[in-house]
Each structure stands twice: as C-alpha cells, then as structure tokens.
Amino acid sequence: MQKSLFSLIIIAFLFNSCKQNKASKTETVESTPPKFRIEIVNDEAFKVIDPNAEIKVLASGFTWTEGPLWVEDGGFLLFSDIPNNKVYKLSGNDTVTYLQPSGSFDPEFKGLEPGSNGLLLNEQGELILLQHGERKVVKMDAPLNNPNPEYITLADNYKGKKLNSPNDAVYDSEGNLYFTDPPYGLPELMEDPTKELDFQGIYCLLTSGELILLDKSIEFPNGIGLSKDGKTLYVSQSNPLQANWYKYDVTGPGKVENKQLFYDVTSFIDKEGYPGAPDGLEVNKNDIVFASGPGGIWVFNSEGTLLAKILTGERTSNCAFGTDEKTLFITADDYILSVDLK
C-alpha cells in the first residue's frame, strides 16, 4: 500500500475517533447505557472482576478523552481532552478545566490532536504531560493546585531531530521513563512536512537524561506499561491494519530484547460493536493487563490469555486504577467511566 494512501486511512480512523460530540458542555451522568457489559472469557477473570459489576458513567460531553490519572493525594481524576487542548479535573460530581492549553501553545495549530495525551506523576508527585502539539515530554514546574504552571522539557528530540508527538508513558521503579512516539499529533501524520524522524519510536529516558531508542519497528506505537517487577514491557500498536499488543523482556534500564506478539485483534477492527483499536494500557499488582482495544477494555494475564472484556461499545482510549486498584477509570470517546474491581 502506498504511504500516502495508508496515511489517509489513519487520518479517517483518527477523525472518527476524535469526532465532535453533540454535547456543548461537559455533564455528569448517572445512567448506564445498555451497551455497557462485562464479558467473562476465562474463569481466571473472576479473581479480578465481578461480571455483574456496574460500568458507571461519571461524566460526558467531551470530544476525545485520554490520559486518565488518579491523584491519590487529593482524591481526584485528571484526564486529557486532546482535540480541545485541555486537561480536566474530575472530583466527586464536579468536572472543571484544569489546564488550558495542555499540549500546544500555537493558536494556529491545524492538527486534530493539539492537546496533551498521557498524564502521570513522577516519584516527587510532579505532573508529567506528553504534549502532542508541542512534541515534548514535559514536567509541570508547579504544585498540582497552581493554575498558571510553567513546564520543564524532559525530552523533545532524538539525536537532534524533533520527536513526532509523545503519546503514553510509564515509570520504572528506578525513575526511568518509557514512552511511545507515534505521529498522531502531527497535522498530516506520516506525511507531515515538519516530521523530522523517519520512524516512530519506543524510548526510555534514563534518570541521567540520556534518551535511548528501544525499538523503531512498530509503525504506530501507542499505549505502554511495565510488569510489577519491571522485567516485561508491554506496548500497543494502534495501526488498524495490524492491531495488536507486543511484549519485551527488560534486561536493564533502557534495554529490551525478545520482542513477542502478545495478542492480535486485527480481526476485530471495524467489527460491529467493536469500534477502535489498541491504545492505552495499565498493569495491576498481579500482572493482569487492562488494555484498551476494539469496543472497550481487554483483560489479559501475563501470558497473553484473554480473561475478560469490559465492553463500552465506544472507541476506548485508556484506563487507570484508583485507590488500591479497586476502581478502574476508563476514557472512552466523550465519556469518563468507572467500574469496581475485586
């Protein structure tokens, strides 16, 4: 397939993902649409989730939600609305704008995804943002309650060439930051004239400040996560023509080998009731992988056995754990959802 045609397919896929929602403002909702359901595939899932657990709608009316982050010290959820270039704060029943702009400071930005994507906290409790529009990984140089932050750049180039648009990230126990860099924040994606790298990378930013390229063979790397012992790295590929998850053995800080296919869902792309593709993921303390994919959240054990699906019927972008991993927060299209876990 010609590269330009392939980019058109991805642009159409993104446009459907980032479609403008009819709601003119955010709203808190209590009803549960009937399309929401939990499907148990393997009995091992009963240790993780009750099949009758309610999938709750906490808020809706956004455009394309991403990057959920539970802030334990404060008891609130942060999440990105990428097309609207905002980070929101959800506390109880109240949703307010937390940061605007969140990813691009150029009012003339032409792309579909100017805002921040992934959000996470470092060991010091500082907010880390992966900014699509600015093409950077940054640290917010202010307390979490400061409405006028400044940003410190952690990574914006590889060997002198600008990154594409950092997407999702995870810290290991030593403070090294693993992240993905697909082209989704570039206005013309793979064909964008400002694109400087001829690949989409998976990186590790060492505590020393050195940026290590781990792999450049995945065309659209997206979600990323680590096993609890830090020895396995999981990465999702959001290419609708090759929709799957991979895992790598981590042999040291910034060192991976033995890339393996973890699970393939290409056959589910465009299947009725299963919109979307592999995106963000989280790994719990028992190495159960919660991965957003076609139609919702796919739940796996560490061997790649499918345990369950938390089906939203929406393009589902990401998830995050709440206190003691007893709640799973889910970003799905214009929704913020939650479901109780065991």
Please give the count of helices.
Answer: 1
Per CATH, the class reads Mainly Beta
CATH topology: Neuraminidase
SS strand fraction: 35-45%
Order of helices and strands: HEEEEEEEEEEEEEEEEEEEEEEEEEEE
Quickly count the domains. Answer: 1
Percent in helix: under 10%
Provide the CATH architecture: 6 Propeller
Helical/strand content category: mainly beta
Largest sheet: 5 strands, antiparallel
Strand order of the largest sheet: 1-24-23-22-21
Produce the secondary structure layout.
Blueprint: H1 3-17, E1 37-40, E2 55-59, E3 65-71, E4 76-81, E5 86-91, E6 94-99, E7 116-121, E8 127-131, E9 136-140, E10 151-155, E11 157-158, E12 161-162, E13 169-171, E14 177-181, E15 201-205, E16 211-215, E17 221-226, E18 232-239, E19 242-252, E20 255-264, E21 281-283, E22 289-293, E23 296-300, E24 306-311, E25 316-321, E26 327-332, E27 335-340
